[in-house]
């Protein structure tokens, strides 16, 4: 087995073992993770909407001053 083959085999073994360990030790199930991502997404969307409103108000103030 040459050096390149050893590197490829080691990479595949690392990938597979990482997947298995990650699956076993995952803190949440897939469904729980999807819910958490959904909540985080809605929170970020709300913050973005408020930021857009602030930018609009600031833009209006700047245009009034001109």
Task: Please provide a written account of the structure.
Helices cover 89% and strands 0% of the residues. The protein contains 2 helices and no strands. The chain has helices at residues 3-25, 30-65.
Number of strands: 0
Number of helices: 2
Report the sheet with the most strands, covering strand number, pairing sense and barrel closure. none
> Residue-averaged pLDDT, rounded?
88
* Element-by-element helix/strand order: HH
* Gross morphology: elongated
Terminus-to-terminus distance: 74 Å
Name the helicity range: over 70%
**Whole-number radius of gyration?**
24 Å
- Which structural class do the helices and strands define? mainly alpha
Low-confidence stretches: none
For the record, the count of structural domains works out to: 1
Strand fraction band? under 5%
């Amino acid at each position: 087995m040459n050096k390149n083959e050893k590197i490829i085999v080691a990479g595949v073994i690392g990938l597979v073992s990482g997947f298995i360990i990650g699956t076993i030790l995952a803190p949440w199930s897939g469904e729980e993770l999807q819910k958490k991502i959904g909540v985080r997404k809605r929170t970020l969307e709300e913050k973005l909407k408020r930021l857009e409103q602030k930018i609009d108000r600031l833009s209006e103030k700047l245009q009034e001053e001109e």
